[in-house]
Specification:
By secondary structure, the chain is an alpha/beta fold. The protein has a domain of 162 residues: Nucleotidyltransferase, domain 5, CATH 3.30.420. Helix content is 43%, strand content 20%. It has 14 helices and 13 strands. The chain has a six-stranded mixed beta sheet with strand order 1-11-10-9-12-13, sandwiched between helices. The chain is globular. The termini are far apart. Bound molecules: adenosine-5'-diphosphate and magnesium ion (MG). The site of adenosine-5'-diphosphate (ADP) has 14 residues, from helix 8, helix 9 and helix 12. Keywords: ATP-binding, Glycolysis, Kinase, Nucleotide-binding, Transferase.
C-alpha cells in the first residue's frame, strides 16, 4: 500500500499513456470525453438560467440569476424520485423530471419566460455535442434499461414538449465534474481542473483543442475544450494491476459492479472505508489485532465501516487522541487495547494516504500537460471536504511531483447545481455568437 518512487513513476507513465490513447480514440481505460465546452464565463453573462441535477440521491431544480458572469441569486427545490421510477421505463421517469421542472418554473412565475437549462446527468455518456449525451449505462440506484443508448437531452426535451406548459430550452448536458470546473472558474479565473472526491471520483481539465480528435460538431477556431477524463475507470483494462493488493481484490469482489471502476475503488468515499475494513478483518483473522476480543461479526460484514468513520479516526491521529477510535470500535462491539488503537489508526492512515497519493500523481501529471503558469484545481465532494488530512497531503505530494508548478486547490461547492446553470449560460452565449 506504500509506493516506491519507481512505482509512482510507473503510475504516472501509465496515466499519460492511457490519456494519450483515449484522446487519440484508441482503446484505453480513460474515456477522455469531449464535453464541447470550449470556454469559461467571460463576465458578460446576465439573466436567469435553470439547472437540473440528476445523479445523486436527490433530484434538484435550480434557478440562478447572473450579473456580470457571477451568480447573484439562487433558488433551489429538491424532489424525490421513487424507486419504481428509478428502475422503470424511460418515459415515466422523464415525464416526472419534466413535471418537476414545470412545478418549479411555475412556482417562480416564470412559465412565460424563455429559460435556458443545463442538465447535469451524472452517468457515463457519449457526447456528440454540448447538448447531446447518449447514456452508456445507468449506475448507482437507477436502471431504466430502455433509456440506455438514448440521448438524455432528447428524452427530457420530448417530455417537456408533451407538457408544453413552460418555455424551458435544454441547451447543455454535463456531469458534476465539468460543473465543478466551471463553478470553480467563477471563484478563481485560473481554474483549469475540476475534481470530484465524493461517493465516486472523476476529473476534467482544459485541454488544447488541437490535441482533441473526437469532435463531431463543426469547429469554430476553439483554442481549448474541457475534457472529461472519466478516471474512475482508470485501470479497468488491467494497466494498474501492479498496484492491486489482495485487499483491493476483496474490496472489488464485495462491490456492486465487479471488475470495473478500478481507480475509483482505490480512492473514493464509497470504497475507502471498505478497504480499511477488509484490512482490519484480515488482521483480526490472523490473530494480529483485537487479540482476546470475541470476533466482531459486524466488522466482518462488507460495507459496515463507512468512509466517514475513517475520517473520524484520522481526526484522532491529527489530534493525538483516541476518543473517536474507541467510540467507533465500541459500536463494533470491540474494546480495544493500546496496540489495537495504534494499529487501527495506522491502517486508516495508510489507506487514506494511498488515496491522496494516487489522486496527486494524476493531478501533477495534468499540471504538466496543461502547462500554464498558474493552475487552480476546483474540488467538490464530501470526502475531500470532511477528511482531515487529504487536502494537506495532496498539496504536499503535488508540489513534490510537479516541482516548480504554481497551483492552488480550492473548494468549489455544488458544481452539479450551480455549474450546470453556468454552463447553460456559456452555451447560450456560444449559440448567439454563431447566429
Ligand atoms: P455525491 O458524490 O453523491 O455527489 P458527496 O460529495 O456528498 O455526494 O459524497 C458522499 C460520499 O462522501 C459518501 O458516499 C461518503 O462515502 C463520503 N463521506 C461522507 N461523509 C464523509 C466524511 N465525514 N469523511 C469522508 N467521507 C465522507
Ligand atoms: Mg456530488
Amino acid at each position: 500500500m506504500r509506493f516506491s518512487v519507481a512505482t509512482i513513476r510507473k503510475i504516472q507513465d501509465v496515466f499519460i499513456s492511457e490519456m494519450n490513447k483515449g484522446i487519440h480514440q484508441q482503446p484505453s481505460s480513460l474515456q477522455m470525453e469531449n464535453t464541447y465546452i470550449p470556454e469559461l464565463l467571460d463576465g458578460t453573462e446576465e439573466g436567469l438560467y435553470l439547472a437540473l441535477d440528476l445523479g445523486g440521491t436527490n433530484f434538484r431544480v435550480l434557478l440562478l440569476e447572473l450579473a456580470h458572469g457571477a451568480p447573484v441569486r439562487q433558488e433551489v427545490k429538491r424532489y424525490y424520485i421513487s424507486s419504481e421510477l428509478r428502475v422503470g421505463s424511460a418515459i415515466p421517469l422523464f415525464d416526472y423530471l419534466a413535471e418537476c421542472v414545470s412545478d418549479f418554473v411555475i412556482s417562480q412565475g416564470l412559465q412565460d419566460v424563455e429559460l435556458p437549462l443545463g442538465f447535469t446527468f451524472s452517468f457515463p455518456m457519449v457526447q456528440h455535442s454540448l447538448d447531446v449525451g447518449i447514456l452508456v449505462t445507468w449506475t448507482k440506484t437507477f436502471n431504466c434499461s430502455d433509456a440506455v443508448n438514448k440521448d438524455a437531452v432528447r428524452l427530457l426535451r420530448e417530455a417537456l414538449d408533451r407538457r408544453g406548459d413552460t418555455k424551458v430550452k435544454v441547451v447543455a448536458v454535463l456531469n458534476d465534474t465539468t460543473g465543478t470546473l466551471v463553478q470553480g472558474s467563477t471563484l478563481d479565473p485560473d481554474t483549469a481542473i475540476g475534481l470530484i472526491l465524493g461517493t465516486g471520483s472523476n476529473a476534467c481539465y482544459l485541454e488544447r483543442a488541437d490535441r482533441v480528435e473526437h469532435w463531431e460538431t463543426e469547429r469554430h477556431g476553439e483554442r481549448e475544450v474541457i475534457i472529461d477524463i472519466e478516471w474512475g475507470a482508470f485501470g479497468d483494462n488491467g494497466v494498474l494491476d501492479f498496484i492491486k493488493t489482495d485487499f483491493d481484490r476483496e474490496n472489488d469482489a464485495n462491490s456492486l459492479i465487479v471488475n470495473s471502476f478500478t481507480f475509483e475503488k482505490y480512492i473514493a468515499g464509497k470504497y475507502l472505508g471498505e478497504v480499511v475494513r477488509v484490512i482490519l478483518a484480515r488482521l483480526t483473522k490472523e490473530g494480529l489485532l483485537f487479540v482476546g476480543e470475541s470476533t466482531s461479526e459486524s466488522l466482518l460484514t462488507p460495507g459496515s465501516l463507512t468512509t466517514d468513520l475513517v475520517s473520524h479516526i484520522e481526526q484522532d491521529s491529527v489530534d493525538g487522541d483516541d476518543s473517536n477510535t474507541k467510540e467507533i470500535l465500541g459500536k463494533f462491539g470491540i474494546i480495544p487495547d493500546e496496540d489495537d488503537i495504534r494499529i487501527v489508526q495506522y491502517v486508516c492512515e495508510v489507506a487514506s494516504n494511498r488515496a491522496a497519493l494516487l489522486v496527486s500523481i494524476c493531478l501533477a501529471t495534468l499540471l504538466d500537460r496543461i502547462d500554464k503558469e498558474r493552475i487552480t484545481i476546483a474540488v467538490d465532494g464530501s470526502l475531500y471536504k470532511h477528511h482531515p488530512r487529504l487536502e494537506g497531503w495532496m498539496k504536499q505530494y503535488i508540489s513534490l511531483l510537479a516541482p516548480g508548478r504554481k497551483f492552488k486547490l480550492i473548494h468549489a461547492e455544488d458544481g452539479s447545481g450551480k455549474g450546470a446553470a453556468l454552463v447553460s449560460a456559456i452555451a447560450q452565449r456560444l449559440k448567439k455568437r454563431l447566429q
